[in-house]
Amino acid sequence: xxxxDLLRQLNWFYSLEIEQVDLYTTQARAATDIYLRQVLTxxxxxxxxxxxxxxxxxxxxxxxxxxxxxxxxxxLGQVAGTMLNWTNTLTVxxxxxxxxxxxxxxxxxxxxxxxxxxLFDMLWDHLIDEDLHTAWFSxxxxxxxxxxxxxxxxxxxx
Length: 158
Fold this sequence. Notes:
- The chain is mainly alpha-helical.
- It has five helices and no strands.
- It has one domain (3-157): Ferritin.
- Helix 2 packs antiparallel against helix 5 (117-157).
- The longest helix is centred in the last third of the chain and has 41 residues, at 117-157.
């Protein structure tokens, strides 16, 4: 992979991860469920670690992380988080799952193109984190959908 293409990809992930930090932080602030708030805060912390890792890798390659991503991505994350907070928890979780699945697909594609060890390992670490986030969000969404279905079933019996 050409260095220029690799830097473009790393900056894409850098911007995406910044957006995720602000998305999850905004969602955590509005969460009324303490467990969900703690999870979203933890996920935002993990995403921030990804931002730090990607920025360091970009700098190690003699480039500067994209300023455009550093400016626009937080705004997008805050706006998306705020808008999703106007919905319900199930919708928030489903949107988070979609975002994490996109990140995982993109990480997989880049991993297949990268052979150098430190970068390869870092990308795998990020992919695994995104997969774990997706699994938690999916499990919680399933749990909430099941609770909602049970509530509706009990209403129909009344």
